[in-house]
Amino acid sequence: MRPVEIACDESGSEGENLLGGETDVFAHAGVRMSWPAAAACVREIRARIGSPAEEYKANHLLRAKHRAVLEWLLAPDGPLAGRGHVHLTGKTFFAVRAAVSLLAEDGTDAMARTLHRTGPAAFGAARWEFFLTAFTSVLRLKPRRGVTTSPAEFFALVGELAGVPGEAGEIVARFRGGAERVAAYRARLAGDPGLVPVLDPLVPAVIHTVRHWSDGGTPVALVHDEQLALTPERVLQLKATLGARLAGVRFVDSRADARVQIADFLAGVARRIASDELNGRGDPRLTTLLRSFVDADSVWDGPTSLIAARRAR
């Protein structure tokens, strides 16, 4: 079967830096459009916005004076209807889910959601943030910005929080047995340059993108904006994970492919709309328009108004 080409781009990528970075949401977009359709869409956006900028980015569409253009792009009868898909990752929830998955022997998504929702109140916002920062530090062989926490220090903190009454403390208590799993993970990371870090949301998002577009059995060939994190080793891992669903990955400069430019627009506006929704300043109209593009299995524990329906796991 002939593969279908899906143009991709992301917004909010900061690698393993999930906490305290520039963004709190990561968005990965895939667009299925022909070259002529994508080029026509870019021309129409340029005509409607009228900016002299050589390269348009999502920020152009997000300006209040261009609201009508953004609504046109996302509308049910707009140029992206049925042609776009976005996988969202709430970065803090992604970190919590990684902690539960790695540290608790019987960790589940339900457990992660409970901890994510109850942790700040149970431990205090500052202590909770410190705990998550310590966890991400332990999993990184080269901690960023000089923030370092040894495994021994982290598990001492686990012991402290495990004594806090309530659901959050009970869940953290399950982490006490995770020291060996952390040590094994760090050893694998040191020995395998192609290993996908559990704290990087990019590869999981790409997997969801491919699964979405290959759902009917058609293999997918990705045309992706240049992305250093998608190393040759990680592309091989993607192929091993996805099998016949993934026909190949090709990297291009977004300025040279109108389809990737459209994916860049979609990822950028999706990240901003989702971030606003996550932080209580969402725009109901834009949230409703974006909702039809969002993957139901996004890594999301924010307002459910953004996710149409979550499939049973």
What are the defining features of this structure?
313 residues; alpha/beta; Nucleotidyltransferase, domain 5; 2 domains; 5-stranded mixed sheet; 13 helices; globular; NAD-dependent protein deacetylase of SIR2 family; DUF3800
Structure notes:
With 313 residues, the chain is an alpha/beta fold. It folds into two domains: 4-89 and 199-306, Nucleotidyltransferase, domain 5; 91-191, no CATH class. It has helices at 35-49, 58-62, 67-74, 91-103, 109-123, 125-138, 151-162, 167-173, 179-191, 202-213, 232-242, 258-278, 284-291; strands at residues 4-11, 25-31, 84-90, 220-225, 246-252. α4 crosses α5 and α7 runs antiparallel to α8 (167-173). The mean pLDDT is 92.
Topology diagram in text:
Blueprint: E1 4-11, E2 25-31, H1 35-49, H2 58-62, H3 67-74, E3 84-90, H4 91-103, H5 109-123, H6 125-138, H7 151-162, H8 167-173, H9 179-191, H10 202-213, E4 220-225, H11 232-242, E5 246-252, H12 258-278, H13 284-291
Parallel strand pairs: 1-4, 4-5
Antiparallel strand pairs: 1-2, 2-3
Helix pairs in contact: 1-12, 4-5, 5-6, 5-8, 6-7, 7-8, 10-11
Strand content: 5-15%
The overall strand count is: 5
Question: Helix tally?
Answer: 13
Alpha carbon gap, first and last residue: 29 Å
Spatial order of the strands forming the largest sheet: 3-2-1-4-5
CATH topology of the largest domain: the name is Nucleotidyltransferase, domain 5
Radius of gyration: 20 Å
Q: What is the count of distinct domains?
A: 2
Instruction: Indicate the low-confidence ranges by residue numbers.
Output: none
Q: What's the CATH architecture name of the largest domain?
A: 2-Layer Sandwich
Q: Please bin the fraction of helical residues.
A: 40-55%
Indicate the mean pLDDT: 92
Helix-strand string = EEHHHEHHHHHHHEHEHH
What's the level 1 CATH class of the largest domain? Answer: Alpha Beta
Protein name: NAD-dependent protein deacetylase of SIR2 family
Pfam family, one: DUF3800
